[in-house]
Amino acid sequence: MNTLPLRYGTNPQQSPARVFTKSGADLPISILGGSPGYINLLDALNAWQLVREMKQATGRPAAASFKHVSPSGAAVAVPLTDVLRQIYFVGDLELSPLAEAYARARGVDRMSSFGDFVALSDTVDESVARLIAREVSDGIIAPAYDPAALDILKAKKGGKYAVVQIDPAYEPGLTETRDVFGVTFEQRRHDRPVSIDDFANVVTTNHDLPVEAMRDLTVAWITLKYTQSNSVCYVKDGQTIGVGAGQQSRVHCARLAGDKADLWYLRQHPAVLGLPFVPGIKRPDRDNAIDQFLQPGVTEAEKANWRDVFTEIPAQLSTAERRAWLDTLSGVSLGSDAFFPFRDSIDRAARTGVRYVLQPGGSARDADVIAACDEYGMTMVFSGIRLFHH
Which positions are annotated as active-site residues? Predict the structure, then answer.
């Protein structure tokens, strides 16, 4: 089959719509369940490329949680701590390595991942299928499915959950085209893989770059390659902990990603782990309540709504308590898809425990950015590779 009709395009008023191959060759995807839409398939094909490259680069199972053509989270399989199992709400599950990767990708920013499209690098097993089955999600793409896992996923959303299988051997041509307003754009597909040489040019006084940092910078490199530009991401223990995508200003990317990383770490604070939830609260309501609890300046009128989710109104963390907790976060890696034009992004990164930085370099103010990293004792690598994605 070389064409797949779709209900509509980006919006319901954009119909008819379809996906097809111009060459007449068969599509590399097959639909095993549900009916994916235009945006679903954009997410699916971008997310598949991300997890495929991440598995190739690290040798570990990889997962991505995609929303609106950018990852809410991406991760490779690294064993979860008890605290992470608690804040990702998987403490009751036995997790395979692939399920651990998805728990990380999904759990880092649960509000953004609400209604995500899942991409997995390996054959979907029953463990990860059971995890996905209980989350609000639109669909999944993977190279293969165990029979029991497929049965679970095909039953999700009353049979409407989009289950897409992609041929893992599929490789598109080197040239890609796009039509915009009746004009066709053409370029070489961005097929350059990450390389060990991308981490060779350490430009700071500190040259410390342990194996774990190399892994995390690799995760950052590949995540940025498939994130709408401008983009910045923070990575810790093999997973993104904050992604800032599609901002016009680089420092705004750094702030957005940093704020998300801060929320991820604040969710591990004992005060959050001990929040007195009403029994039986639904997952989205719980996630929204945690997010609001961690927002400073919540009014008393807003807190009155907490009676629906908490058995008693909890006291919010003070500014000093938040800062004291965040000051214990360290060893974070930061990646940027293009150079930093000013040191402001480094100053912001320092507040979120960043120790390792990857960026292309090439700014007229590179010396200022290097000096900022030296002030904070960071190790910064110039990869020389811009990673814009549009």
Answer: 67-68, 230, 390
